Structure of Motile sperm domain-containing protein 2-like:
Amino acid sequence: MATPADVRALFEARLKETSPPPDFHPLDLERAKDEKYLKRVLQHTDKDAKEAANMLWDICVWRKSVGANDINESNIRLDYVKEGLFFTHGRDVDGSLLFIFKAKMHIKGQKDYEDIKRILIYWFDRAEREEGGKRVTLFLDMEGSGLSNMDMELVKYLITLFKLYYPYFLNYIVIYQMPWVLSAAFKVVKTLLPAKAVERMRFVTKDTLKDVVAPEQALVAWGGKDNYVFEFIPENRSEHTPKKVTFAEQGDGQHSPGEMLRLVPNDTIVFKTEGDEISGQFTITNMDESAVSFKIRTTAPEKFRVRPSSGTLASGASQTVLIVVQPGIHLRTVTKDRFLVMSIQIPKTDVTPKELTQIWHSSTGSKTDEYRLKCQFPEKDIPKNGNIMEGSLLEKSDSSTSTLSNLEQNYAKLHRDLKQLKLLQFVTLTMTVLVAVLGYLLYENMVEEHRYCERM
């Protein structure tokens, strides 16, 4: 039977064999040595040591690409957080923390999707720390929601986090008070889940919620006894910046004296094909004695996904920037695009977003450093049809999108038909009342004439 030691050995062997060595975050490398965490990865991969080692590697790569360890309350949209779209509270019958998603508060397209993803990573990491890696239950509160609240991209991202990057972290998926109009959409969601996750899905109403969440743990809005009202409370943990670990020395030949940043590579981003994505990356190092803030701009923001697109760096700290070509973009249209990295000195790394905005607004050209990068796409990495995303992945994505689109169209048609039916009912009722009134008046008139004839 595979053991955590087997997973650790396979992971460390891959570290030694990889050239150039990956610049994983120190906290992730520490996690790769943690017995408890490795047991979770093994559980997630059905005790397959090789699969577990591969998953551990993919987690480190992903966390590095999104800057997961650097996400905190100072660099996420706290105004989004305080709305209470996502929060943790209460426990299920197994004692697992509830991660609650209030679906009716989310309207697709109203908020920046990348900001929402960073908030999700913040909550997932926070729950992992506070719960010591114990499993959580995803509670989808669908009461009062409709098709305008159904965001397939967001749901797929939630599933991806549990499926690929947070091992053995999901207890149940609870879908509370799901409107019938969303039934078809959740059939699509089921196809995206592994068989084990489908088995953990629970569709509940106010009457059946007690089977998954005890009344004492359920909110009053769900028919429970807990009168909790969400209020964001910052995480209580001591913040520290660990020393950056590197696996290959990089010379200073690419940095000019007096410049704030060193970029590696310093003038060209080399893109490569990895699976169904074409991506490139570069590393920013703060060579200044003070902390700096940086921003990254491109001549074609609609063609690229840049993460992170901005941030802060303490003196001597580094940040790897990942750039992914958006699906469906033809490579011949991006070869001439450029990237601009701008930097400015700041008093400390934990400035608030509002303070950071003011610093940038008050800066002048003499206080800002700028670095320009061009793109290089090797000929062998360009797909024959010029598209980044093709094959079964594209077909699956298109199929899900098409299904939801058809559902939305059918819902809109049904809504129109219902309005017409209501109008028809109103007209019919009005005509019935008019006929009744006319009939009564006619009857009264005939009775009156009859009485008149009798008197004559």
Summary: The first strand starts at residue 86 and ends at 91.
